[in-house]
Design a protein that fits this description.
The complex is a heterodimer of chains A (376) and B (416).
Chain A lengths: L2 H6 L4 H10 L2 E5 L6 H6 L2 E5 L22 H11 L8 E5 L3 H13 L4 E5 L10 H20 L5 H27 L6 H10 L5 H17 L8 E6 L8 H9 L2 E6 L18 H11 L14 H11 L4 E7 L3 H16 L4 E6 L7 H15 L2
Parallel strand pairs in A: 1-2, 1-3, 3-4, 5-6, 5-7, 7-8
Chain B lengths: L1 H7 L1 H18 L8 E4 L6 H6 L3 E3 L1 H10 L3 H11 L7 H11 L3 E2 L2 E2 L5 E6 L4 H13 L2 E6 L10 H22 L5 H23 L14 H4 L1 H5 L4 H20 L9 E6 L7 H9 L3 E6 L19 H10 L7 H14 L4 E7 L3 H4 L2 H11 L4 E6 L9 H22 L1
Parallel strand pairs in B: 1-2, 1-5, 5-6, 7-8, 7-9, 9-10
Antiparallel strand pairs in B: 3-4
Helix pairs in contact in B: 2-12, 4-6, 5-6, 8-14, 9-12, 13-18
The chains are: A alpha/beta (376), B alpha/beta (416).
Chain lengths: 376, 416
Amino acid sequence: MDAESRLEDLGLGAVQAWKERSGGKAIGHFPVHLPAEILHAQDVLPVSLFGGWGKVEIDHADSRLQSFVCSITRSTLELGLTKKLGMLDGMVFSNICDVARNLSGVWTRNFPKMMVEYLHLPQNVDSPAAPAHLRAEYRRLSASVAGLSGVPLEDSRLEESIALYNRGREMLDQLAAIRTAEPWRLSMTDWYLLLRIGTVVPKEEHLEILSRALQSVRGTPSRPRDGIRTVLLGAFCEQPPLELLRTLESAGCFILEDDLVQGQRSYSHAIAEDGRPLDALVDAYLRGSRASSARHHGSRPRHRDLMERVRALKLDGVLFCTAKFCEPALYDYVLYKEALEAANIPYLHLEYEEKMSTFEQARTQVETFVESVLFD
Amino acid sequence: MSENLVSQDAAKDLQKEMLGRYYGALSAAKETKTPVAYLFIPGNVVEITSAYGFLPVYPEINALQCGIKKVAGDLILAAEDKGYSSDVCGYVKNDIGLMLKDRQHPMGQIPKPDLLVCNYSGCNTFIKWFEALAEFYGAELFLLDIPYVRGDGVSPEDVDYVVAQLRELSAVCERISGVPSDPGRLRDLLARSRAAEDLWAKILELARSRPSPFDSYFEAVFYMAPINILRGTEDCVTYYQALLEEMERRVEERVGPVPEEKFRVIFEGPPPWPHFRAFWELFKKWGVTAVASTYSKVGGLYDQGIRHDPARPLRSIAEYTINCYTNWNWPMRSDLVKRYVDHYGADALVIHSVKSCRSFSVGQADLRERFIHELGVPTLMVESDLADPRYFQEAQLRNRIDAFFESLEHQRLVNA
């Protein structure tokens, strides 16, 4: 099965296949931050949920969620209510946004047999009290995970999982670096699929896929093309339709960095492999995370991070792709935009939702943006 | 009857006078060189900031007053011009609009913040709101991280976590204000908070009477103003003493908010402030009295025994901040509404769902499912907004409300 088919496999067939093969348990979560290493160390497969990917009619979920809620929430609940998430043994929610938080309670009532956990990820990240709180949260999660898999959390296993996930993030960083330096070598959609596939297959398998991709990208001759230098922000949880990503690139944008499938790349550097592994995971979240709209960053506002990237990458402009009704992205957009305007950097904001089916208007907007940058 | 109506206004006049004084102090803050702390209502830690001499500003209160005074629409549009989406919280946009218009509020000019205390209790938007204000005002932001309630209740570890941060916040307050820490002052503030909370809880309980002496939604959201804005002050205690006397008199005289109490309901969700009167009228005409509401508890679940306590200063503040209505998980919220139905003898549940506040509204449709299908409680859910006047469709709301109470009336006749 190729990557695109796997992506569209709403029945999460890869997860089902893994379960049949391994006899293991699987836990779903929204694709933002989750300490996947803990689940892996306890023989549980973490599975990111992306909603219905535009192919699910919302019917049952309508009676439980209002129309002003983002697509990923509504269609994920629809999948659950129509028994298409039966391969999941549990769900983990966290404080990504008010919708994700409140959905945890809706899920608890509608799926009483499922393990449902809620992680309160600390927001006062500079507080001396934050590490102990997060350690306790991770321990509580691991106790629930042990209840499913029967495997307790042991330091040696967690160390191995951290090393494995570090290796995965390192390979993704290598691919990202290729895209930053020579974006024509690896298309936006191929890069995206490499990220996405890692959310439904075990990390060991993802590493093999990434290794082959790295060899292929490095070994294939490719001619430079022209395009404007941009980064893409705002698509950290609900993901844009593939076609929209294709449109951005084909309309003339090189997307040198992005926050797509953010949970696959939570950290800005490798998690420490010496010392106590749980402490290393905690420290990585508090002090080593990439900028994310789904959390507070203490004294390091996200828009200052963006402006550093604008300078470092010599960007021509910035693209904002935000999911309809996604409050964290929509609030952050204003602060980003203010900073860009002050520095006279062009930007473009596009909204998407699962049901988006025509991309002509988006194409026109992006092409106009590209032209305005090129001929300014 | 006219005499009774006069007596009903006594507490209202007192409140007007007290809030006038509060806004006067805000307008004079720059002149009097009084430091100003911005706080959110749910889970606020005003006793701590007040102990260091800060005047509290509550942007949510400013926004709701702009809604009532019908100036919210223009402020919201000003924020949308700045880039805020039509899909984000109207309170935030109202506040950004105020900032863009030199903070000229109908009650007076609001001072700039010296400190932003983001008491992150039950609302992620709070973080985004104060991150923006920190940037626009260049003010220091303290993010008080309050864990969402997981499982069946609050763990001692969560309380420890918040207490540790309250100590950090105290140090920040001391540094900015230059006022040294004074445990006695904090205890005095907490004692006054507790006294007002005791009185308010007693008043809320009076809604069990038949008829209920007041509407526990449409009136209680005004009666809650002093405990939300003036908590910790003598004024606040005085107000609830006067209100309790007034309500006890109403119980004796069997005076209620509607001429004849026909339906007793529980209300869930915030009101549509820009169309408050019109919304109330849609219910009044059916003889509906709210006997309990969740929105009147956003400032504290005092009716559930939550109290500030001078004998346990920081722990009681921490417990209060964690036990905010929207910081409770949905199973707990839903069980609370169920308890209200039983305790206050309600006939139905009315849910007002607002787009602005996902923290309140996401989960309400599922609440309706539970109440109708599992508990057999007639439930009406209507939608508009708490801040944005554009979302109030009166004709549509009237149709839904009329149909619901017509059906309840019909059922009564059938069952009679």
